[in-house]
Amino acid sequence: MDLTVYLSGEIHSDWREAIIKGVEEAGLPIDFLTPVVTHEASDNAGDVLGEEENPFWKDHKSAKVNGIRIKTSIEQSDLVIIKFGEKYRQWNTAFDAGYAAALNTPYIVIHPDEFTHALKEVDARAAAVAKDESQVITILKYLCTQK
Predict the structure, then answer these.
(1) Quick check: 106 and 77 in contact, CB under 8 A?
(2) Domain 3-11+36-130+140-145 belongs to what architecture?
(3) Predicted TM-score of the model (pTM)
(4) Could you give the C-alpha distances from 25 to 19, 20, 21, 30, 141, in angstroms and in order?
(5) Which pLDDT score, from 0 to 100, does residue 120 have?
(6) Among 1, 23, 51, 87, which residue carries the largest CB count within 10 Å?
């Protein structure tokens, strides 16, 4: 089974690289899509529409431009993997989970146990809730090879 997988979530660790490396090492037929993961590039994505002195409007424009990529990527994906990291609250990540759910696109959530209560609604709609990237890689192996 060939899959397109969108990797949504925190950008402060190498979790995406770990999953991609594990998939490559297993030889799985998976293509990955990602959001822009560089803060500066993401924060300034809307500058193409004109500079803004007001931080609200600067963020608003950048969110809209980034949203084009995110929305398109989720719509093109067979599966979404969503990681909630420990350093910051990822409100946008919860939004991605909601969008995947609205499209009926399955998603896997990764988060530490202490986030279970806060993410109970996100977890309730998830196809799986993983504790780490190795569990996700194992699920992907099963999906592609049935082993």
Answers:
(1) no
(2) 3-Layer(aba) Sandwich (3.40)
(3) 0.94
(4) 10, 9, 6, 12, 11
(5) 96
(6) 23
